[in-house]
Amino acid sequence: MRRRLLLVGSSPLIHLIARQLDSDLARRAELEVIMINRRERIVYAPLIKSLLGKKKYFKPKPYDYLKVTHKEVSSISLPRRQVITTSGTFDYDHLVLDQTPTFTPEEVDRLSEEVKKLVMQLSSRVHLGQRRRATVKFAGEASISWQLSLAVASDIKALPAAVAGLLSVQTDAAPSSQLVSFLRLAGVGKLQQETVSTTVEIRPPKRIVEPKHIKGATVGAQGYPHLNQFLNFEGYFDAIVVDHPFRRFHNTIGVDLTLAKSIVRNIEAAVDLTRQHPISMPQRALLLSSDQSHFYLGNRRASSGLLARTTAVLDRKRLGRFFL
User: How far apart are CA 13 and CA 10, in angstroms?
Assistant: First the structure.
């Protein structure tokens, strides 16, 4: 009887895992590999440098043996080994769940429309001689929120001076002073209360499925499941789960590729019923791009110089290898 491996997620990481499985494990006749994600295309945040202009999204290169289906996941039952979607239930023998928070292209496009409407309102006010200010607020700490705030700041610079002077963009707290400085230099202010007539507030992206909807999981005080050193839920060694606060501060393909290789080795071990090995969760690898420069924030290093530029160039090359 064929065993089934489910891959669930929407970030680049789940596609990097899928690509490695497609060239090896998915070819086995006794194994069925299915990937469930929300949309065909993915968002690579550092390349979104404008919300009002053209945005580039990516989709994975075609898979040879792995099956792909696009569905919304509503809940997961670890005891029953089931992933429940809005249009059906998938039983599994092995599960990889990538909970990295990310927006879909459709969600980014909707945010873009909100900002465009705000700019049109301001333009109309300027023609009427009104000077009421407006702001775009990005709430929550997340790498994609900071990148989109940089995109809006770049858009504001390109607006007519009379309109640009009435519009500001703000973000929530950042995890380092270097990142704060980079955002400020790019025109992104600190999230604060001010008297404005119109505010567009953008909440951070959500995970694929909230922990309260994962049956059988023990969830900690911060809403993250208790994981052992194998990235498995305690007591569920057939389920590898990537869900950690540090994933909010992570968006580089290079580090995801390293993590994917470790996860694939443990998937192979689980399928072959051999011993899995500890996986170290990358703590932070954040790349942001403004209209003029890049910024990299690692676990111990921050850079807006050579390291940031090199990371950006290498990530673009890796994107070309795996995505269209």
Answer: 8
Counts of helices then strands in the chain (DSSP H, E): 7, 17
* 8 A C-beta contact, residue 103 and residue 202: no
Summarize pLDDT for 67-84 with one digit per residue, the tens. Answer: 999 999 999 999 999 999
| Tokens at 113, concatenated | 């429309």
Q: Render pLDDT for 211-227 as a digit per residue (tens, 0 to 9).
A: 889 998 877 767 777 76
Return the closest-CA partner of residue 324 out of 42, 38, 55, 53.
42
Domain coordinates in residue numbering, the chain: 3-104+205-282, 129-202
The percent of residues above 90 in pLDDT, for the chain, comes to 66
Element spanning 258, H or E: helix 253-271
Partnered with residue 95 across adjacent β-strands are 6, 239
pLDDT > 80? residue 49: yes
Q: Residue 263, class by beta-carbon neighbours within 10 Å (0-12 exposed, 13-18 middle, 19+ buried)? A: buried
Sheet holding 82-85, edge to edge: 88-91, 82-85, 73-77, 214-215
∠310-316-319 over CA atoms, to 5°? 140
The fold of the 3-104+205-282 domain, in CATH, is FAD/NAD(P)-binding domain (3.50.50)
Q: What's the whole-model pTM score? A: 0.92
Cβ–Cβ < 8 Å for 264, 242: no
Nearest to 271 by CA among 93, 73, 98, 15: 93
Q: Which residues pair with 94 in a beta bridge?
A: 5
In Å, what is the CA distance from 63 to each residue of 8, 17, 141, 149, 151? 16, 12, 34, 34, 32
H helices of 186-236, in order, are: none
pLDDT tens per residue across span 107-163: 999 999 999 999 999 999 888 888 888 999 999 889 999 999 999 999 999 999 999
